[in-house]
Amino acid sequence: MISLHEVSGGVCAPKGFKAGGIHCGIRKNKEKKDFALIVSEVPCAAAGVFTQNLVKGAPVVVTKRNISDGVAQAVICNSGNANTCNRDGEEVALKMCSLVTDVCGIKPSDVIVASTGVIGVPLDIAPMAQNIGRLYDSLGDDSDGAAEAIMTTDTVPKSVAVEFLAGGAVCRVGAIAKGVGMICPNMATTLIFITTDVGISHEMLQRALSEDVKSSFNMVSIDGDQSTNDTCCILANGLAGNEKIVSSGADFAAFRAALRHCTVKLSKMIARDGEGATKLIECNVRGAKSVKMARNVARSVIKSSLVKAAMFGSDANWGRVLCAIGYSGEAVDAQKIAVEFRSVKGRLPVCRDGSGLEFDEAFAKEVLSQGEVEINVDLGLGGCRASAWGCDLTYDYVKINGDYRT
Amino acid sequence: MISLHEVSGGVCAPKGFKAGGIHCGIRKNKEKKDFALIVSEVPCAAAGVFTQNLVKGAPVVVTKRNISDGVAQAVICNSGNANTCNRDGEEVALKMCSLVTDVCGIKPSDVIVASTGVIGVPLDIAPMAQNIGRLYDSLGDDSDGAAEAIMTTDTVPKSVAVEFLAGGAVCRVGAIAKGVGMICPNMATTLIFITTDVGISHEMLQRALSEDVKSSFNMVSIDGDQSTNDTCCILANGLAGNEKIVSSGADFAAFRAALRHCTVKLSKMIARDGEGATKLIECNVRGAKSVKMARNVARSVIKSSLVKAAMFGSDANWGRVLCAIGYSGEAVDAQKIAVEFRSVKGRLPVCRDGSGLEFDEAFAKEVLSQGEVEINVDLGLGGCRASAWGCDLTYDYVKINGDYRT
Questions:
Q1: Neighbours of B325 (CB within 10 A)
Q2: Catalytic machinery residues of A
Q3: ipTM score of the complex?
Q4: Single residue among A252, A272, A292 that ends a domain in this structure
Q5: B355 in reach of chain A (CB within 8 A)
């Protein structure tokens, strides 16, 4: 039996994790935290998924190496500078790991390091070196502080935690995330740090995470850009006391369900907080011949600038949805496609068998003017389905990105 | 010897072509022409390239069928309604062809038909049937009238014509185009009608056109969306009197150069008139291992919403350029990439060997504030190159597309 419910505490909800975040001086605005630390009492099984961009941030290179043995114990992260496309990038990322060693003895190679912010500007280690002691002293149940310190143009910190049963023990998964622009399939400029006290082998942990992101973070798109620094890491310290998960079965299923609850919730939070967004758009595709087809169609719709702009204007321009389905690269049959828009105000069927249905424009405006809008597509070809999340395209997106560096 | 220079007259510059455009009532605004006709005195060799979108407009289906025998003699086109995703779409497209027969006897199957505008709203044949006589009577040297009548959100009509020598005869190519949104590789919502008086077999005409669009219209991107109705057709009536081109050689090369002059010029005009655009962005990629690599990298940069927004803000955020190169799908080596911005104000090298170069921010603003900006990328891997054209992402793009239908 799987029992699953949300709890407070973010990454500090699972046993044995402490977190904190401070302003150390990388960002000019002193009100904005820019330096985060998460530490486990004991070494953890570790797993990660990373950007597929061939231009990779130095922290990504170092973190991949550090978790290649399946073990890690801490996460250090700064915002305000991505430490990417700099000649000394790897050196600086390694120094960040060593700062953790300096304050608590955890080996540099057991540290997950991440950076987010502007690309191509050297990252000065000095503000972090000068403030690592203060950051370490601040550690506690401060998941919110860490969540704030990893934000860039995010407007709200993003955090979730759940409790569930596995192997007779009460277990927890907690997570924080940042990312609102350059969000796209393949984890673009998303940083996600997940903690759990479940006992699990690092092989099963990696398997769970790799499978999960395919239907969670990789189904989020804000603007189609893919970042150089995307990192999603999970640490499992085993302090819940469950029988260690080393293969599939009920316990693994319970853990995967808990993980999925957290990742889908964060995916929606990321999409809803998309740069300049006024609404969360969820595209649900069913009737596909394969999951791959369903996913590609859902992402194609969510990524369309014209669909996104229509959603901003609460314009039931379903032709743009059909158009985006048509260029998804999947062998759809236009004559079989049905589309409806849906929100708390009700359902608005707009297309059946590839042709338009009559609808009331006033009701359409009402349905589409809500903060969460679904675009539901039935391809009429099979039994597979998928969901993707995104947001509308607004004046503020352009404003935020028109002059990001200054 | 190839002699090539621009002339006036658009699609009416080549011998034996007449054109015109009127308002017939499909568009509500009576100031806006919405009905165009181009007619050749004699039957022409015909060729075309069309949208790759699996959701295809009815006119595309009919036109592909009509030119499958390599012959056509007229183009009929309306704006204000795409005649796409309608149950009676094909029937209406066929009726449009028959209207041409009614006024001048050209067989319906020798007519190229095109529609552009909103998707999913039935297209009423009545305003066209009532006004086809008036449109036919208006035919003359009115390439501009036709160019206006095919516009949707275009702000300027797009037209070009050149004169050149082939087979001892003076020949001409003329063209009109529309398209400012939903522009993307694979010909998205672009309508392009090209006329020429050169004598050429329809096989060689198709070969020239198919090759040409790969490095012209398919390298234009406004917003990454691909339309259901893209059509690029060419009619060659042979009235120039040159020895008919039936194989490669000097005459074919001369014709291809003339065609390319027209298509590249129209590509830039389309990009510059991108919805809401304030500037034309040209991305020139060199040092690629293959032309395919160069093209994919150039398109990836031109399509990046973040690069486009940075260009709007005249922000030399070259990290976004590297990021877009990194997710192009091509096996680039980040450590070998060089990037410079360039405009009439000068060159601004910003990245070498994948790392940033120091530059003066005031000079950067000056370079990037111009109406035409180049992003020049050297991949450092080989000898192939390509160019792509796009525009900046602005508040007005969002405004135009936030409520297109109303």
A1: 27
A2: 189
A3: 0.70
A4: A272
A5: yes
